[in-house]
Design brief:
The structure holds 2 protein chains of 2 kinds. Helix content of chain A is about 0%, strand content about 55%. Chain A is built from no helices and 11 strands. In chain A, strands 2, 4, 5, 9, 10 and 11 form a 6-stranded mixed beta sheet that branches. Chain A has a 5-stranded antiparallel beta sheet with strand order 1-3-8-7-6, with no helix packed on it. The model of chain A has no long low-confidence stretch (mean pLDDT about 90). By secondary structure, chain B is mainly beta. In chain B, strands 2, 4, 5, 6, 9, 10 and 11 form a 7-stranded mixed beta sheet that branches. The chains are: A mainly beta, B mainly beta. The interface between A and B is medium-sized, with 15 and 20 residues.
Chain lengths: ~110, ~120
């Protein structure tokens, strides 16, 4: 079983749609959680951190459920520019190592 | 924000040769840098953790004699792929950890695409 699992997609949605991505992690000792965005052939870029209380940044909302070891990302009013692969990332404080999920590919169509 | 550079951005080499990839933190000192590898349509996989002034820590399954890591200064880590083979063709990405003064973040380099023919 992978440490961080995501539905690979692709998710094909029209502009303006709301789309949700899910992620589960297996290490209950994981301390910090993030969503990264990766465009084709580019390095991943931090989209947002995920906090236990849930957090929002514009059209993006992240949620964390520690009991279920589950993380989500909601994108409202999708834009064409949101097309990318979204990576769920977990940080183990020991060694400060990031573990990446396989990524979920999003394609927003006009 | 902090910037991490990698050089070269793209390299093509012949099987059996060695390739060196540089990772630099441009405006901060990084005591720890990480090297990742990403095959097509797959996620990033951590190869090794590079600590300034000490030996790198390799992940299980990564050959330390094949992937030589040198972290000679607080702003530079190098990854040398020795005796490269076509199966080493991949996207290699480094990240640098900035810590101290209330900060603890990792920044990714732009990646190096290696093609071994």
């Amino acid at each position: 079983r992978k440490e961080v699992e995501q539905d690979p997609g692709p998710f094909n949605v029209p502009e303006g749609a709301t789309v949700a991505f899910n992620c589960t992690y297996s290490n209950s000792a994981s301390q910090s959680f993030f969503w990264y965005r990766q465009d084709c052939r580019k390095e991943p870029k931090l989209l947002m951190s995920v906090y236990s209380s849930g957090n929002e940044d514009g059209r993006f909302t992240a949620q964390l459920n520690r009991a279920s070891q589950y993380i989500s990302l909601l994108i409202r009013d999708s834009k064409l520019s949101d097309s990318a692969t979204y990576l769920c990332v977990v940080l183990h404080n020991a060694g400060n190592m990031l573990t990446f999920g396989g990524g979920t590919r999003l394609m927003v169509k006009p | 924000g902090a910037v991490v550079s990698q050089h070269p951005s793209r390299v093509i080499c012949k099987s059996g040769t060695s390739v060196k990839i540089e990772c630099r933190s441009l405006d901060f000192q990084a005591t720890t840098m990480f090297w990742y590898r990403q095959f097509p349509k797959q996620s990033l996989m951590l190869m090794a953790t590079s600590n300034e002034g000490s030996k790198a820590t390799y992940e299980q399954g990564v050959e330390k004699d094949k992937f030589l890591i040198n972290h000679a200064s607080l702003t530079l880590s190098t990854l040398t792929v020795t005796s490269a083979h076509p199966e080493d063709s991949s996207f290699y990405i480094c990240s640098a950890r900035e810590s101290g003064a209330g900060r603890d973040e990792q920044y990714f380099g732009p990646g190096t695409r290696l093609t071994v023919t």
